[in-house]
Protein backbone atom coordinates (compact mmCIF):
# COMPACT_ATOMS: atom_id res chain seq x y z
CA UNK A 1 0.00 0.00 0.00
CA UNK A 2 1.52 3.29 -1.07
CA UNK A 3 1.27 6.45 0.98
CA UNK A 4 0.46 9.67 -0.81
CA UNK A 5 2.21 12.60 0.82
CA UNK A 6 0.89 16.16 0.48
CA UNK A 7 2.71 18.31 -2.01
CA UNK A 8 5.05 20.77 -0.36
CA UNK A 9 5.50 24.31 -1.62
CA UNK A 10 8.85 24.62 -3.34
CA UNK A 11 11.34 26.11 -0.96
CA UNK A 12 12.38 28.96 -3.29
CA UNK A 13 8.78 30.27 -3.45
CA UNK A 14 8.34 30.07 0.29
CA UNK A 15 11.65 31.78 0.82
CA UNK A 16 10.74 34.62 -1.56
CA UNK A 17 7.40 35.13 0.18
CA UNK A 18 9.10 35.22 3.57
CA UNK A 19 11.70 37.67 2.33
CA UNK A 20 9.02 39.87 0.77
CA UNK A 21 7.09 39.95 4.05
CA UNK A 22 10.30 40.84 5.90
CA UNK A 23 11.05 43.70 3.49
CA UNK A 24 7.48 45.01 3.78
CA UNK A 25 7.73 45.00 7.57
CA UNK A 26 11.02 46.90 7.38
CA UNK A 27 9.44 49.43 5.03
CA UNK A 28 6.44 49.96 7.32
CA UNK A 29 8.74 50.43 10.29
CA UNK A 30 10.83 52.97 8.37
CA UNK A 31 7.75 54.94 7.35
CA UNK A 32 6.41 54.97 10.91
CA UNK A 33 9.77 56.24 12.13
CA UNK A 34 10.01 58.97 9.48
CA UNK A 35 6.43 60.15 10.00
CA UNK A 36 6.81 60.06 13.78
CA UNK A 37 10.03 62.06 13.57
CA UNK A 38 8.40 64.68 11.32
CA UNK A 39 5.47 65.00 13.73
CA UNK A 40 7.88 65.48 16.64
CA UNK A 41 10.30 67.80 14.83
CA UNK A 42 7.59 70.22 13.74
CA UNK A 43 4.99 69.75 16.49
CA UNK A 44 2.43 68.62 13.95
CA UNK A 45 0.00 66.85 16.28
CA UNK A 46 -0.85 67.74 19.88
CA UNK A 47 -3.02 66.25 22.57
CA UNK A 48 -6.71 66.71 21.77
CA UNK A 49 -6.19 67.51 18.07
CA UNK A 50 -8.91 66.73 15.59
CA UNK A 51 -7.01 65.99 12.36
CA UNK A 52 -8.66 66.17 8.97
CA UNK A 53 -6.78 63.66 6.80
CA UNK A 54 -7.29 64.76 3.20
CA UNK A 55 -7.73 61.61 1.15
CA UNK A 56 -7.56 61.93 -2.64
CA UNK A 57 -7.46 58.26 -3.55
CA UNK A 58 -3.80 58.40 -4.55
CA UNK A 59 -0.91 56.41 -3.10
CA UNK A 60 0.37 59.32 -0.98
CA UNK A 61 -2.81 60.07 0.96
CA UNK A 62 -3.61 56.38 1.45
CA UNK A 63 -0.15 55.84 2.92
CA UNK A 64 -0.44 58.92 5.12
CA UNK A 65 -3.75 57.75 6.58
CA UNK A 66 -2.48 54.21 7.11
CA UNK A 67 0.70 55.30 8.93
CA UNK A 68 -1.16 57.85 11.06
CA UNK A 69 -3.61 55.15 12.12
CA UNK A 70 -0.71 52.95 13.19
CA UNK A 71 0.96 55.77 15.12
CA UNK A 72 -2.32 56.75 16.74
CA UNK A 73 -2.39 53.44 18.62
CA UNK A 74 0.90 54.09 20.43
CA UNK A 75 1.23 57.88 20.32
CA UNK A 76 2.07 59.75 23.55
CA UNK A 77 -0.95 62.02 22.95
CA UNK A 78 -4.58 61.37 22.10
CA UNK A 79 -5.90 62.74 18.82
CA UNK A 80 -8.76 62.10 16.42
CA UNK A 81 -8.45 61.21 12.75
CA UNK A 82 -11.20 61.81 10.20
CA UNK A 83 -10.67 61.05 6.51
CA UNK A 84 -12.13 63.67 4.18
CA UNK A 85 -12.37 63.41 0.41
CA UNK A 86 -13.41 66.12 -2.02
CA UNK A 87 -15.48 64.67 -4.86
CA UNK A 88 -14.83 67.21 -7.62
CA UNK A 89 -17.31 65.54 -9.97
CA UNK A 90 -14.74 64.48 -12.52
CA UNK A 91 -16.16 62.28 -15.28
CA UNK A 92 -16.01 58.55 -14.50
CA UNK A 93 -14.84 59.16 -10.93
CA UNK A 94 -15.55 55.90 -9.01
CA UNK A 95 -17.52 57.37 -6.11
CA UNK A 96 -17.88 54.02 -4.34
CA UNK A 97 -14.18 53.24 -3.90
CA UNK A 98 -13.24 55.48 -1.00
CA UNK A 99 -16.40 54.97 1.09
CA UNK A 100 -16.12 51.20 0.72
CA UNK A 101 -12.44 51.22 1.68
CA UNK A 102 -12.90 53.52 4.68
CA UNK A 103 -15.85 51.52 5.95
CA UNK A 104 -13.80 48.34 5.66
CA UNK A 105 -11.07 49.71 7.95
CA UNK A 106 -13.48 51.44 10.33
CA UNK A 107 -12.28 55.02 9.82
CA UNK A 108 -14.67 57.96 10.28
CA UNK A 109 -14.96 59.82 7.00
CA UNK A 110 -16.85 62.47 5.06
CA UNK A 111 -17.20 63.08 1.32
CA UNK A 112 -17.47 66.74 0.27
CA UNK A 113 -19.29 67.06 -3.04
CA UNK A 114 -18.39 70.15 -5.04
CA UNK A 115 -18.31 70.42 -8.82
CA UNK A 116 -14.97 72.16 -9.26
CA UNK A 117 -14.32 70.17 -12.42
CA UNK A 118 -16.90 72.12 -14.44
CA UNK A 119 -15.52 75.41 -13.14
CA UNK A 120 -11.94 74.53 -14.06
CA UNK A 121 -12.74 73.20 -17.52
CA UNK A 122 -14.92 76.24 -18.24
CA UNK A 123 -12.44 78.86 -17.07
CA UNK A 124 -9.09 77.40 -18.14
CA UNK A 125 -8.44 77.54 -21.92
CA UNK A 126 -7.93 74.20 -23.63
CA UNK A 127 -4.32 73.09 -23.51
CA UNK A 128 -3.47 75.21 -20.46
CA UNK A 129 -2.60 73.63 -17.11
CA UNK A 130 -5.46 73.34 -14.66
CA UNK A 131 -3.53 72.70 -11.45
CA UNK A 132 -3.39 76.25 -10.09
CA UNK A 133 -7.11 76.97 -10.26
CA UNK A 134 -8.02 73.41 -9.28
CA UNK A 135 -5.78 73.63 -6.20
CA UNK A 136 -7.31 76.95 -5.10
CA UNK A 137 -10.84 75.65 -5.41
CA UNK A 138 -9.96 72.40 -3.64
CA UNK A 139 -8.16 74.24 -0.85
CA UNK A 140 -11.11 76.57 -0.36
CA UNK A 141 -13.57 73.69 -0.04
CA UNK A 142 -11.36 71.80 2.42
CA UNK A 143 -10.66 74.90 4.55
CA UNK A 144 -14.36 75.71 4.72
CA UNK A 145 -15.26 72.20 5.84
CA UNK A 146 -12.43 72.19 8.41
CA UNK A 147 -13.62 75.46 9.92
CA UNK A 148 -17.26 74.37 10.04
CA UNK A 149 -16.41 71.09 11.76
CA UNK A 150 -13.83 72.09 14.34
CA UNK A 151 -10.72 70.51 12.87
CA UNK A 152 -7.51 71.76 14.47
CA UNK A 153 -5.10 70.36 11.87
CA UNK A 154 -5.35 69.61 8.14
CA UNK A 155 -3.06 66.78 7.00
CA UNK A 156 -1.91 66.68 3.37
CA UNK A 157 -0.05 63.83 1.69
CA UNK A 158 2.91 65.71 0.20
CA UNK A 159 6.18 63.79 0.58
CA UNK A 160 9.90 64.57 0.57
CA UNK A 161 10.16 64.62 -3.23
CA UNK A 162 7.22 67.05 -3.46
CA UNK A 163 8.99 69.42 -1.07
CA UNK A 164 12.19 69.31 -3.12
CA UNK A 165 10.34 69.70 -6.42
CA UNK A 166 8.46 72.75 -5.12
CA UNK A 167 11.77 74.32 -4.11
CA UNK A 168 13.09 73.93 -7.65
CA UNK A 169 9.84 75.17 -9.18
CA UNK A 170 10.14 78.37 -7.16
CA UNK A 171 13.83 78.64 -7.99
CA UNK A 172 13.55 78.06 -11.74
CA UNK A 173 10.21 79.66 -12.55
CA UNK A 174 9.59 82.26 -9.81
CA UNK A 175 13.10 83.46 -8.89
CA UNK A 176 12.78 82.84 -5.17
CA UNK A 177 14.12 80.44 -2.56
CA UNK A 178 10.91 79.00 -1.17
CA UNK A 179 9.38 75.60 -0.82
CA UNK A 180 6.57 73.59 0.68
CA UNK A 181 7.00 73.62 4.48
CA UNK A 182 6.15 70.56 6.60
CA UNK A 183 3.86 72.78 8.69
CA UNK A 184 2.25 76.11 7.87
CA UNK A 185 -0.44 78.55 8.88
CA UNK A 186 -2.98 79.36 6.18
CA UNK A 187 -3.04 82.89 4.79
CA UNK A 188 -6.16 83.76 6.79
CA UNK A 189 -4.57 82.48 9.99
CA UNK A 190 -7.40 80.03 10.66
CA UNK A 191 -5.86 76.68 9.70
CA UNK A 192 -2.69 74.76 10.52
CA UNK A 193 -1.65 72.53 7.62
CA UNK A 194 0.69 69.60 8.28
CA UNK A 195 2.57 67.27 5.95
CA UNK A 196 3.42 64.12 7.93
CA UNK A 197 5.16 62.51 4.94
CA UNK A 198 7.74 65.33 4.72
CA UNK A 199 10.65 62.93 5.37
CA UNK A 200 9.35 60.03 3.24
CA UNK A 201 10.67 59.15 -0.24
CA UNK A 202 8.13 58.80 -3.04
CA UNK A 203 9.62 55.44 -4.06
CA UNK A 204 9.01 54.10 -0.55
CA UNK A 205 5.41 55.31 -0.67
CA UNK A 206 4.86 53.59 -4.03
CA UNK A 207 6.31 50.34 -2.69
CA UNK A 208 4.22 50.57 0.48
CA UNK A 209 1.00 51.30 -1.43
CA UNK A 210 1.68 48.35 -3.72
CA UNK A 211 2.33 46.03 -0.76
CA UNK A 212 -0.86 47.16 0.98
CA UNK A 213 -2.97 46.93 -2.17
CA UNK A 214 -4.67 50.29 -1.74
CA UNK A 215 -7.51 50.90 -4.25
CA UNK A 216 -5.78 53.71 -6.15
CA UNK A 217 -7.93 56.25 -8.00
CA UNK A 218 -6.00 58.07 -10.79
CA UNK A 219 -6.51 61.78 -11.34
CA UNK A 220 -7.73 62.15 -14.92
CA UNK A 221 -8.13 65.91 -14.67
CA UNK A 222 -4.54 67.06 -14.27
CA UNK A 223 -2.67 63.77 -14.39
CA UNK A 224 -2.97 63.65 -18.16
CA UNK A 225 -1.26 67.01 -18.65
CA UNK A 226 2.29 66.00 -19.54
CA UNK A 227 3.83 69.44 -20.02
CA UNK A 228 3.45 70.70 -16.49
CA UNK A 229 6.44 72.49 -14.99
CA UNK A 230 6.33 70.10 -12.04
CA UNK A 231 6.70 67.12 -14.37
CA UNK A 232 9.69 68.75 -16.00
CA UNK A 233 11.30 69.18 -12.58
CA UNK A 234 10.47 65.59 -11.65
CA UNK A 235 12.20 64.29 -14.78
CA UNK A 236 15.27 66.30 -13.83
CA UNK A 237 15.23 64.94 -10.26
CA UNK A 238 14.78 61.36 -11.49
CA UNK A 239 17.79 61.75 -13.78
CA UNK A 240 19.88 63.14 -10.92
CA UNK A 241 18.91 60.26 -8.68
CA UNK A 242 19.82 57.72 -11.36
CA UNK A 243 23.21 59.32 -11.96
CA UNK A 244 23.98 60.16 -8.33
CA UNK A 245 21.86 58.13 -5.88
CA UNK A 246 21.21 60.04 -2.67
CA UNK A 247 21.33 63.51 -4.23
CA UNK A 248 17.64 64.23 -3.57
CA UNK A 249 18.02 63.25 0.08
CA UNK A 250 20.97 65.65 0.38
CA UNK A 251 18.92 68.46 -1.15
CA UNK A 252 15.99 67.66 1.15
CA UNK A 253 18.26 67.91 4.20
CA UNK A 254 19.63 71.22 2.96
CA UNK A 255 16.12 72.71 3.11
CA UNK A 256 16.33 72.32 6.89
CA UNK A 257 19.80 73.89 7.19
CA UNK A 258 19.50 77.46 5.96
CA UNK A 259 22.48 79.84 6.28
CA UNK A 260 21.16 83.40 5.68
CA UNK A 261 24.66 84.93 5.90
CA UNK A 262 25.73 82.70 2.99
CA UNK A 263 22.92 83.85 0.70
CA UNK A 264 21.97 87.34 -0.44
CA UNK A 265 18.74 88.47 1.18
CA UNK A 266 19.32 91.68 3.23
CA UNK A 267 15.94 91.14 4.89
CA UNK A 268 17.23 87.93 6.53
CA UNK A 269 20.79 89.02 7.33
CA UNK A 270 22.15 92.49 8.21
CA UNK A 271 24.76 92.85 5.49
CA UNK A 272 24.83 96.64 5.97
CA UNK A 273 26.15 96.29 9.51
CA UNK A 274 28.72 93.66 8.55
CA UNK A 275 32.26 95.12 8.73
CA UNK A 276 30.96 98.65 9.19
CA UNK A 277 33.57 101.27 10.07
CA UNK A 278 32.53 102.65 13.44
CA UNK A 279 29.89 105.36 13.13
CA UNK A 280 30.22 105.78 9.39
CA UNK A 281 26.88 106.63 7.77
CA UNK A 282 24.94 103.84 6.14
CA UNK A 283 25.27 103.77 2.34
CA UNK A 284 22.65 105.70 0.41
CA UNK A 285 21.40 103.48 -2.40
CA UNK A 286 19.78 106.41 -4.21
CA UNK A 287 23.06 108.30 -4.22
CA UNK A 288 24.93 105.30 -5.59
CA UNK A 289 22.39 104.74 -8.33
CA UNK A 290 22.17 108.42 -9.25
CA UNK A 291 25.93 108.82 -9.33
CA UNK A 292 25.89 111.85 -7.01
CA UNK A 293 29.37 113.30 -6.36
CA UNK A 294 31.19 112.53 -3.10
CA UNK A 295 31.17 115.33 -0.55
CA UNK A 296 34.94 115.95 -0.94
CA UNK A 297 34.53 116.31 -4.72
CA UNK A 298 31.78 118.91 -4.46
CA UNK A 299 32.81 122.50 -5.39
TrEMBL record:
Residues 50-214 form the tRNA(Ile)-lysidine/2-thiocytidine synthase N-terminal domain. A motif (PP-loop motif) lies at residues 56-61. Keywords: 4Fe-4S, ATP-binding, Cytoplasm, Iron, Iron-sulfur, Magnesium, Metal-binding, Nucleotide-binding, RNA-binding, Transferase, tRNA processing, tRNA-binding. Its EC number is 2.8.1.-. Its main location: cytoplasm. It is an enzyme of class 2 (transferase). CDD domains: TtcA-like. Its cofactor is [4Fe-4S] cluster; Mg(2+). Binds 1 [4Fe-4S] cluster per subunit. The cluster is chelated by three Cys residues, the fourth Fe has a free coordination site that may bind a sulfur atom transferred from the persulfide of IscS. It is found in: Cytoplasm. The keyword Transmembrane helix does not apply. One of its GO terms (cellular component) is cytoplasm. It catalyses: cytidine(32) in tRNA + S-sulfanyl-L-cysteinyl-[cysteine desulfurase] + AH2 + ATP = 2-thiocytidine(32) in tRNA + L-cysteinyl-[cysteine desulfurase] + A + AMP + diphosphate + H(+). Pfam families: ATP_bind_3 (PF01171). Homodimer. Belongs to the TtcA family. The thiolation reaction likely consists of two steps: a first activation step by ATP to form an adenylated intermediate of the target base of tRNA, and a second nucleophilic substitution step of the sulfur (S) atom supplied by the hydrosulfide attached to the Fe-S cluster. Catalyzes the ATP-dependent 2-thiolation of cytidine in position 32 of tRNA, to form 2-thiocytidine (s(2)C32). The sulfur atoms are provided by the cysteine/cysteine desulfurase (IscS) system. This is tRNA-cytidine(32) 2-sulfurtransferase. It comes from Lysobacter soli. The gene is ttcA.
Amino acid sequence: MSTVLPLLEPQPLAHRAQRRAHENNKLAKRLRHQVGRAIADFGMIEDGDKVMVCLSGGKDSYTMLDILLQLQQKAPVKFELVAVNLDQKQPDFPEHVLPEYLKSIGVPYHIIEQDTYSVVTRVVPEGKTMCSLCSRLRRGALYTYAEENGFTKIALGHHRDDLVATFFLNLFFHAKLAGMPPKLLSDDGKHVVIRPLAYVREDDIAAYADAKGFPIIPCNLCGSQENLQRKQVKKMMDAWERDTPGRIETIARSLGDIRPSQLGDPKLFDFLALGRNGDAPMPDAHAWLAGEPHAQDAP
